[in-house]
Amino acid sequence: MRRTLEQFIDPWLAGYADRGLEERFRAELALGFALFQVLVFALFCAVELISGTPAMGYIHLSAQLPLIVSLYLLRRGAALSWVSLILIGNIYLVIIVVIVISAGRAVGAVVALPAFVMVALMLSRRLGGWVWMLLVVLAMLLAAQLHNRVVTPWVQPSPDWLERAAYRVPLLVSLAIAFVAVSIKRALGSYRRALLRAQDEERKQRAGAAAAAERFAAFADLAADGFWETDAELRLEFVSPSFTNSLRVAPEIVLGLPPVALFERLSPTASSVQRLIEPMQRRVEFADVVLQVPRRSGEVVWLKLKGLPRFDRDGEFIGYRGCIHDISAQRAVEQSLRDAENRLRTITDNIPALISYIDADRVFRFNNRTYTQWLRRPLSEITGKALTEVYAPPTYARIKPYLDRAFAGEEVSFELERTRTRERHVRVTYVPDVAPGGGVVGVYGMIHDVSRFKDIERQLRELSQIDGLTQLANRRRYDERLGHALALSDRTGQALALLFLDLDRFKELNDALGHEAGDQALVEFAKRLKRCARESDTVARLGGDEFVVILENVDGPQSAITVAEKILAAMQTPLRLSDQSWPWSTSIGIALRVGPGMDEEALLRAADRSLYAAKAAGRGCYRLAGECSSPDDADAP
Fold this sequence. Notes:
single chain; alpha+beta
């Protein structure tokens, strides 16, 4: 039965479910009293219409309309003040109408006044209850006055009906009061159950809040090194244990002191304490206020403070709440990183090479100071700039393929030669920066200036091809130049001539005057050969007193003969050695290459045979293809 009743009442009062226990209780009372009136007026209406006064029955029937309105308002969740006014006013109005039209003779109306008082007091606020009690007194006085006067009632009840009213009315009123009592008991039971549920829910919420507070405190201790709170006078009234532990002070020393005074006591010389004064005086939030607190051991503790002002509902300042973090370890790491960076910067800035780091967007993230010297630009125009902003387009196009390979994970090295626009010959090395996951996040770059080494290499290469005594080309240079000349002759079809020479009676010179004089003779002979040859010709010493002259692009044998005659004419001047003169001469063998039929060895053998033919002819002459000629017979074929 109770469950059936709750299934009816709970949906009807659904609009008051979230308005608190008191509002729900009053709504349930209002619903009970509305149903009570429906029942009472229905009973009175039925009795009056069946065996009483029909007019009275119609009055009770018309009283059902306001009750329907009140039930509708309860269903809609309307304000209970309006519902209560309708319910109380409906009963009072019916009582007054019955008293007036019956001239105070309706005993039932007078007897119903106590029940009305009970309903009015329960549904009304304190002031409203007193007002309705006053109206009840006025209704009773009105009934007494009308009854004592000789007034003809508008509705005249039958004497028998009035006589039986003494038995009938108390029965109906008792039934109505019993219904009211049941409604009140039901509302009180519902209120008690709801109150118990609310208390149980409150206990659960308190337990949950306590657990949440405990979790928050645990997380807070993990997230921060301490919490603090001040009153409106900025005196510390709460500090967490971790707060005092981080400062190495007792709680009784801390409490009651303003934070500024506390840190001034701990660190009298700390100028950073002043950073607390300005925001706390203005009652504004502050963060990242860093303080240094020295300890007796000489260690310095770095603390970071945050504070948030608190205000009440009226906007009055009531204090600060904040936290404190020990950032000593963080500061030590930062200082260590700065020291390491400074050491790295010092080392790299004094290395005569370009050292850089390029991120995945091809942007310079680090450059040593050597960049400013080589590029003649400040680091502010290099570091943080894309490579395309630092290097000219041709230079970037030259290095881009190697950068692509480095970002693909390959270590690459290459050289950029010195050009008209590039002062240095450099060697570039790119090393990929591989993340733990395997991806390349950047590239380390190192660029060395190898210009000096390249110059030395070139000089050494040249020296390795120069005869140390005569400064002519040596055998290695001769082989290289002859091979080049043969290849050029094959491409162009031009003739090529090779002159093979040696000094006549050179051994006699060495034996008579010594090797030093022989060396002087070789040097002088080399000079005279250079003067007789063209710039495009190659004059080389093969060893001892053997020399060759490579004549490129000759028109025929006459061009070679002309050079040979110049050489023989130059040798007519005796060799001057200290205080004496030495007559000397040279023999020349000429080999001519017109087509591609002769290689280097064949050409040298032909010239060698011609040289022996010249020596056999008496020295101091030349021979071409087995013919001999002397200086006096220059026109001989």
